[in-house]
Structure formats: C-alpha cells, structure tokens
Amino acid sequence: MKLYLNKPSPYARLVMVVAHEKGLAERLDLEWTDPWVSPEILTRVNPFSRVPALVLDDGGVLVDSSCICDYLDGVGGGRALLPAELERRVKVLRKLGIAKTLTDAAFGSVIERRFNGAGSEPPLAARWLKAADTSLDVIERDESFSPSTDTPDLGDLALGVALGYIDFRLKELEWRRKRARLGAWFERIKTRPSMQATPHE
Ligand SMILES: N[C@@H](CCC(=O)N[C@@H](CS)C(=O)NCC(=O)O)C(=O)O
C-alpha cells in the first residue's frame, strides 16, 4: 500500500497514528509530497490534490482520512478502533465527528490566514477559531472520551491528533487554560508510541 502524505497535515497524521496502532506502519510505502503545489504524482491518484491518499495493492485509491482509517482498522491486527457492533460504533463515531470537526476548524483557520490573511484576521478564520474554542469547552466537560488512554478508540486518537495540531499551529489559543481535565488527558494520550512516532514538522 502506498500512502501520500505530508508532515504538517493533521489528517495524514491520524492515518499514520492508526497505521501504527494496527501494526501496519511497516507495510506502508510512504510518498511524502506537498499537496499545495498539485504535484502530478499526487493528482494522478487524487484529483483533489489532497493528502492523505492511499493506493491499495489492487490499485484502488482511498481518499479522506476517516475512510482510510476505517480501511486500515479492517485490515490491520489487534482490537477494532471502530467497533462493528452498532451501539459501541455510534459512541466512537460521535467522538470521531467532534474530533474531526475540531480539526477542520483549526486547520481551516490556519489555511484562511495563509491565503486571505494579509492585513487583518479573515472572517472565516475568526468564525472557526471561535467555534474551536467553544467546542473545547464542551469537550472539557465530556466524559465519554476514554478516561483510560491504554485502549483508545478512533475517536480518542482523532482528538489527540486535533489537540496536537492546535499545539503545532495555533499555540496562541492556549487551549489548556480553563481545561485542566483535557490537558491532563492529552498529556497521557500523547505518550502512546503511535503519537510519539508521528510528530508534526
Ligand atoms: N477531509 C479530508 C481533508 C484532507 C485535507 O484537507 N488535506 C490537506 C492537507 S492537511 C490538503 O491536502 N490540502 C491541499 C488542498 O486542499 O489543495 C481528510 O479527512 O483527509
């Protein structure tokens, strides 16, 4: 399997975290690429020129981190990160949706600033940063993110990745202030080998 990725992408990082959790990291042929310059090696497999993109051994292509993670969870070893049984699955999907949307808000605001930020804060960046800040307050009060980080599911891992991205690109949010429980949770989950092996750069 060939994975197209770059180091600053929180979406690509989530895929790599899952690959490590599932014992698949060694089976991935990594193609490091900058999606923003629309390189031909990427656009010929993903016409959206986005990472992550995964080319399967039969030549089929998966795009979008949630779809790729679902696939890796199915083919990799060990416990399921996204359980098949409906009641448990819905709980994980709920957390995954929150964590991915937090990532979208944080990443979107960074990109808005980069492309439309000359002079003042772009309105969409301001909107998404406010949404990210409010959602962090909600997550701080949400006890469903696994208190034990020994057996994280896909929702927990996605939240770890979202918070790691905010530390990487949006330090000024100082998200730990007023959120001691979440801060302590993140300190634990970020020690997992899958998180340690996949730093942003
Ligand atoms: N929903 C997608 C988002 C992927 C995405 O936006 N990737 C960014 C890098 S973090 C990208 O490749 N952007 C290039 C572009 O939009 O042109 C996912 O979950 O994988």
What topology does this entry show?
Layout: E1 2-5, H1 10-21, E2 29-32, H2 40-43, E3 53-55, E4 61-63, H3 65-75, H4 86-116, H5 123-141, H6 154-169, H7 180-189, H8 193-196
Parallel strand pairs: 1-2
Antiparallel strand pairs: 1-3, 3-4
Helix pairs in contact: 1-3, 1-6, 4-5, 4-6
The protein binds glutathione.
Descriptive notes:
- By secondary structure, the chain is α+β, with helices and mostly antiparallel strands.
- It folds into two domains: 2-75, Glutaredoxin; 86-196, Up-down Bundle (Glutathione S-transferase Yfyf (Class Pi), Chain A, domain 2), CATH 1.20.1050.10.
- Helices cover 53% and strands 7% of the residues.
- It contains eight helices and four strands; from the N terminus they run E-H-E-H-E-E-H-H-H-H-H-H.
- It has helices spanning 10-21, 40-43, 65-75, 86-116, 123-141, 154-169, 180-189, 193-196; strands at residues 2-5, 29-32, 53-55, 61-63.
- Strands 2-1-3-4 form a four-stranded mixed beta sheet, covered by helices on one side.
- Strand 1 (2-5), helix 1 (10-21) and strand 2 form a beta-alpha-beta unit.
- Helix 1 crosses helix 6 and helix 4 (86-116) packs antiparallel against helix 5.
- The protein is globular and about 50 Å long.
- 36% of the residues are buried.
- The model has no long low-confidence stretch (mean pLDDT 96).
- Bound molecules: glutathione.
